[in-house]
Amino acid sequence: MNLKAWKTAAGLALKKAPRTSDEFVKLPGHVAIIMDGNGRWAKKHRLNVSKGHRQGTENLREIIRHTDDLGIKVLSLYAFSTENWNRSEEEVGALMQLILEFFTTEIDELDAKNVRILILGDKGRLPEKQREVLKEAEKRTEKNTGLRLNIAVNYGSRAEIVKATQEIAALVKNGEMQAEEINEKTISDHLYTAGQPDVDLMIRTSGEQRLSNFLLYQNAYAEFVFPEALWPDFSVHDYDMALDAYGRRDRRYGGR
After folding, report:
1. Domain ranges (residues) in the chain
2. 227-255: per-residue pLDDT in tens?
3. What pTM was computed for the model?
4. CATH class of 26-156+197-247
5. Could you give phi then psi for residue 151, rounded to 5 degrees?
6. For a 10 Å CB count at each end of the chain, is N or C smaller?
7. 84 assigned to active site
8. Side-chain half-sphere of 83: how many Cα atoms within 13 Å?
9. Is 13 exposed, middle or buried (0-12, 13-18, 19+ CB in 10 A)?
């Protein structure tokens, strides 16, 4: 490699190195990611769809680590929706197996880094092994004070809002609250994300531009970024680009 080519390669490598928090104009407090494109990645590489999900899980580790390194307070990940049960038995089985593997291999590091894990969604429908490993991850990290890692499993935002509404209605029925006392905080306090800030930045990979029933209430004033990269190809550099785009936006919350 000649000197000019070496300098070019070195420059590209430098640009793509993970950025530090002081290199951004501002960072979001809460990032949510719809990890889309595993199936298309597998098809592109002529692999079984389960291989795409596995590659996506490998990528997930780096994104979580970088989020933690940057000091972002909350990261919410859409892992398995209530609608995903409609996929083939083989694909659902592969996803369930990856849940077991991820928490088995990553829980020690996440706990050591003071990450607190919260599962968003109804764990009741999950197979017993998956249900227990998720409960154990929550219990083991419940006193941690670092990154809040929300992982949505068997999650649907409409179902979440229905659950919250039913809980509030029960309070009114039992005389513990008056209907006119219900406000936005009341609803927020009965969502899976109770006590957490709303989403600041929503990222959906693969270029698709829809929420797919993910954090509808919490995304009310979020900024949206839709990278073209399929999730297994979504690098830390791509993540930094999305964070940089967020930092350069003027959030007005309905004002001028």
Report:
1. 26-156+197-247
2. 999 999 999 999 999 999 999 998 776 76
3. 0.91
4. alpha beta
5. -120, 115
6. C
7. yes
8. 7
9. exposed
